């Protein structure tokens, strides 16, 4: 079951998943709906502090709704986006959320810094679920 992540819950959400450090991206999907909205779905193999099986490793799905911006640059000859060594950052952008998953070493502090990432998305709301 999907759980919504409100801006006030970003820090506990990231802490639960160890900020998604050393996470592997299994897939990224952008879905277009009939009412012209877009949903970004990222399936990850990650650690979950609430999971007791498999040494805490699980699969998690991040869903960003009402996506207004998306950027993905994955260089095959350089480091791939598939392994997220430094974690994922979630920024509260007033009425939107920014999701940085492009390997940034430090958290973007502005929309401009977010847009300089190799992989980011901006959307209205975010939810997640874990898969068995």
- Total helices: the number is 2
Read across the widest sheet, the strand sequence of neighbours is 1-10-4-3-2-6
Strand content: over 45%
**N- to C-terminal distance:** 12 Å
Indicate the overall shape.
globular
Structural class: mainly beta
Order of helices and strands: EHEEEEEEEHEE
The portion of residues assigned to helices is under 10%
Low-confidence stretches: none
How many separate domains make up the residues?
A: 1
The major sheet is characterized as:
6 strands, antiparallel
Mean pLDDT: 91
Q: Compute the CA-based radius of gyration.
A: 14 Å
Quick one: how many beta strands?
A: 10
Task: Explain what the structure shows.
The protein has one domain. The strands form 2 sheets. Strands 1-10-4-3-2-6 form a 6-stranded antiparallel sheet, with helices on one face. A 4-stranded antiparallel sheet has the order 5-9-8-7. It is built from 2 helices and 10 strands. The chain is globular. Helix content is 9%, strand content 45%. The protein starts with a strand and ends with a strand. By secondary structure, it is mostly beta strands.
Helix and strand arrangement:
Layout: E1 3-5, H1 10-16, E2 23-32, E3 38-47, E4 57-65, E5 69-72, E6 83-84, E7 89-93, E8 96-100, H2 111-115, E9 119-123, E10 125-131
Antiparallel strand pairs: 1-10, 2-3, 2-6, 3-4, 4-10, 5-9, 7-8, 8-9
């Amino acid at each position: 079951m999907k759980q919504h992540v409100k801006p006030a819950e970003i820090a506990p959400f990231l802490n639960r998943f160890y900020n998604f450090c050393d996470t592997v991206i299994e897939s990224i999907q952008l879905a277009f709906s009939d009412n012209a909205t877009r949903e970004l779905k990222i399936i990850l193999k990650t650690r979950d502090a609430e999971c007791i099986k498999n040494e805490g490793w699980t699969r998690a799905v991040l869903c960003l709704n009402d996506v207004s911006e998306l950027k993905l640059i994955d260089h095959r000859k350089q480091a791939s986006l598939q392994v997220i060594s430094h974690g994922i950052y979630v920024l509260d952008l007033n009425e939107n959320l920014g999701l940085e998953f492009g390997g940034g070493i430090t958290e973007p502090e502005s929309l401009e810094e977010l847009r300089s990432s190799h992989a980011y998305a901006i959307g209205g709301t975010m939810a997640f679920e874990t898969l068995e």
